[in-house]
Write a structure and sequence with these properties.
This protein has 319 residues and is an alpha+beta fold. It has a single domain, classed as Clavaminate synthase-like (Double-stranded beta-helix, 4-Layer Sandwich), CATH 3.60.130.10. The protein has eight helices and 16 strands. Strands 1, 2, 3, 4, 6, 13, 15 and 16 form an eight-stranded mixed β-sheet that branches. A four-stranded antiparallel β-sheet has the order 5-14-7-12, covered by helices on one side. It has a two-stranded antiparallel sheet with strand order 8-11. Helix 1 packs across helix 5, helix 2 crosses helix 5 and helix 6 crosses helix 7. It is globular and about 60 Å long. It starts with a strand and ends with a strand. The model has no long low-confidence stretch (mean pLDDT 93). Bound molecules: 2-oxoglutaric acid (AKG) and fe (ii) ion. 2-oxoglutaric acid binds next to strand 6, strand 14 and strand 15.
């Protein structure tokens, strides 16, 4: 795992950039900002830009940037993304994340997820405690590739921690840490699997058509293993393919042995390579008192053209 801790002068530098962005965008509109975010990100401190360049070129699986600025009068944790959307809670932190993320990739969004917002809120939500969405809490978020069902899933998931009072762990399994028996990796490398859209995508505008996609769970060039799996939504394409079904179960056992936990501190942003790691979250008890765990999240893709080709228009929102 790679980590860079921001020095006080670098933090002030980032704060000034955020002030400039907010002064220019009186009404903060991430959709509008991201088209120019890469240019603004060129003004980030040199060490931060180098950090992101290295992540890309080395294919770092997990990277954490620590000590990012947080507002001294940080808003109360919202009780759902829709509330954050209405009130603008954590707006300044959205700018910090959008700006830093743009140094690594191109932010994009899903039309049916959090109303097509570019920067998401991850916070416990009443009624969603046991769901398989970012509003969950008492049930663990099981290990997954982000948006595994879709060809245009992100290259990186970026999560910026605003609060984490109970020190809840983000779970991570790195492909490089897996030592799978050859017969198992052989089956996982065959196109014998399908992926359903996860709960956060289901609804009137869901992506059910993408279930048709037949793919492998493990792929990639020698020495650089890529993963595509969501343990809630990946299944053997042929229900009589017992070997494929067993392979998913066996992989799960190996992943449980290899799982690591990263406890995000306020001011930490984690960048998870969505091909090189799967991730999830430990369960916790929500309090709904304005002090709950709260992250901002962005999906990043290396080449925005993949999104344009998927949407068929020049839009960063996949519908
Ligand atoms: O809450 C976390 O630490 C991870 C949540 C997650 O998997 C996500 O937002 O994609
Ligand atoms: Fe996730």
């Amino acid at each position: 795992m790679k980590r860079l801790t921001i020095a006080p002068d670098e933090r002030r530098h980032i704060e000034r950039l955020v002030d400039d962005v907010l002064a220019e965008h009186g009404h903060w509109d991430p959709v509008q900002f991201v088209t120019q975010a890469k240019t603004v990100a060129e003004s980030l401190p040199l060490r931060v830009r180098q950090f992101f360049r290295q992540i890309q070129s080395e294919e770092s699986d997990v990277a954490v940037l620590s000590g990012l600025p947080l507002s001294p009068d940080l808003d109360a944790t919202p009780t759902g993304w829709d509330m954050a959307q209405k009130t603008g809670a954590g707006r300044r932190e959205e700018v910090v994340l959008a700006l830093c993320s743009a140094a690594l990739g191109e932010p994009f969004a899903w039309g049916n997820q959090q109303d097509g917002r570019i920067v998401h809120d991850v916070c416990p939500t009443p009624g969603m405690e046991r769901s398989e969405t970012s509003g969950s809490s008492t049930a663990p978020l099981s290990l997954h590739t982000e948006d595994a069902f879709h060809q245009c899933r992100c290259d990186y998931v970026a999560l910026f921690c605003l609060r984490n009072p109970e020190r809840v762990g983000t779970t991570v399994v790195r492909a490089d840490r897996l030592d799978l028996p050859a017969p198992l990796s052989g089956i996982l490398a065959e196109k014998r699997f399908r992926h359903r859209p996860d709960q956060s995508h289901v609804g009137p505008h869901g992506h059910s058509a993408d279930v048709a996609d037949l793919d492998a769970i493990m792929f990639g060039p020698p020495g650089s293993c890529y993963l595509r799996i969501d343990f809630d939504d990946t299944f053997a394409a042929d229900e009589d393919d017992h070997a494929a079904r067993d392979a998913i179960k066996e992989l799960y056992r190996h992943m449980c042995d290899a799982v690591e936990r990263v406890v995000l501190e306020p001011g930490d942003a984690i960048f998870l390579d969505n091909y090189r790691v799967v991730h999830g979250r430990d369960p916790f008890e929500p309090r709904y008192d304005g002090k709950d765990r709260w992250l901002k999240r962005v999906n990043l893709i290396r080449d925005i053209r993949r999104v344009f080709l998927s949407t068929g228009v020049r839009s960063r929102v996949i519908s």
